[in-house]
Amino acid sequence: MPTIYDFSVTKTSGERFPLYQYEGKPVLIVNTASKCKYTHQFDDMQKLYDRYKEQGLQIIGFPCNQFAEQEPGSSEEAESFCQINYGVKFPMFSKMDVNGEAAHPLYDFLKKSGPFAGFDESDVQAKLLKLMVADKAPEWLHGDAIKWNFTKFLIDTEGHVVKRFEPVDSIDEIQASIEQLL
Q1: How far is the CA of 105 from the CAs of 3, 137, 152, 168, 171, in angstroms?
Q2: Would you identify the CATH topology of the domain 4-181?
Q3: Does the structure show a pLDDT above 90 at 1?
């Protein structure tokens, strides 16, 4: 069975980075954007990283411009934005597509391993997200496609997807799932 360790990604420097370097550590993978209504989530992710990095947690970000062109700059600009505006110290990698024909193979794996659970119609934020996706990126509305920026995948210490979190999921829920892995 494949794991995230079977994939390599690209650092903002252009250097290839094999994900097997995270073997034995829990990893939170997130697609990001600097001009998104969810960009403030960098604060919460940095707090999680600060709290749990000594216990092995890794958080890795992948800027993506597929959702309303909310990451228009270069990979280096995205990384700099995160560091300057949110004090991000966890690794940010090169921009990549997460959906469609040009989607990075890592994201194809993540979507298959952590399928979309659907929109919680009883949650106002989830309803608003669904409306936004329907309006701005209807091609991603159905199936397991990443719906928007700041979708997160929690990976266990063996490289398997444990849980998928949508942009509207609470940081408390993410934290509780991380604590179960540590």
Answers
A1: 12, 21, 16, 25, 27
A2: Glutaredoxin (3.40.30)
A3: no
Length of the chain: 182
Residue 16's contacts (CB-CB under 8 Å, 6 or more residues apart) are: 8, 9, 10
Say what the pTM is. 0.96
Domain boundaries, the chain: 4-181
Residue 172's CB is within 10 A of a number of other CB atoms, namely 9
Residue 150 banded pLDDT, cuts 50, 70, 90: very high
Which H helix or E strand runs over 7? none
Out of 19, 36, 98, 129, the active site residue is 36
Average the pLDDT over 5-33 and give the result: 97
36 is catalytic: yes
User: The tokens of 172 are what?
Assistant: 């408390």
Q: Residue 72 CA to chain centroid, in angstroms?
A: 17
